[in-house]
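Technical note accompanying the year-one report. For the benefit of new consortium partners, we illustrate the data format agreed upon in the data management plan: each record pairs a sequence with a C-alpha cell string. No post-processing was applied to the example shown here.
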Amino acid sequence: MFKKLFGRSSHGGGGDDDETESLRHGVRPPIHVLTSPEMSQGMVAPADGDSDVELFTKESLPTLAAFFLFVFSSAAFMSIITPFLPLVLADAGANSAIVGLIFAVYPLANLCAVPLSTRLCTLLGRSKAFVMGATLEALFGILFGYAHRFAPPASIKWLYLAIRFVQGLGSSIAYTALIAWVSDRFSFRLATVLGFQEAIGGIGYMLGPTMGGVLYGLAG
C-alpha cells in the first residue's frame, strides 16, 4: 500500500533503499521533474499590455467612431450648461446652493445608477441597455433646453434638478453597456482604446462650456 502511495518500485527492496544502493555503486538514479499541463504543452502566459494587432482598421473604424462620439457628447452634455445656467437660475431666484446641486446631481446620478446599469445589461442585453440609456440622456437633454418655455420661474430650478438627474441615469446605463461591449470587442488593444476614451472625454468637458456659451449668446 505504501509503495503505491509513494511511488516505490514493485520490485524487491525499492524506494529509498534502491536509491541509496545506486549511489553507493556510483550510479545516479533518474530524476523525475513534475510539470504543469501548461508548461508541458509549451503554453506561455500572455504578457501585460496591448498586442501588436492594428486597432484602426477599415472594419473597426465605424465602431470606434461611434464609441468616441458618444464619449464626447456625454462629456459635453455634462459641462455645456456651465456658462449660462447660473445666470438663468439667478433670474429664477435660486441661490448658489441650488446652482451647485444642479451641477452635482448629474455625476451623483451616475454613481447611484451603477447597480441599475449592470442589472439592465444582464436583463436586456448590452445593445438594448445602451439604446435605452442614450435615448434617456438625449431626450432629457432636449427637454432641459426647452424647460424654461413652459415651466413657471418659481419651479424651474426643481425641474432642472430632476432633468439632470434622469440625464445622469441615462448616461450611466449607456456608458456601462458600451464599456462592457468595447472591452470584449477590443480586448487585444483595450489600454489604447481606454486611453483614447479618456482623451476624447476630456476634450468634451473642455469644449462643452465653449459651445454652451456660444449657443446661449446666439439664441439665448
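Partners are asked to follow this layout when depositing records. Residues 1-17, 31-47 have pLDDT under 50 and may be disordered.
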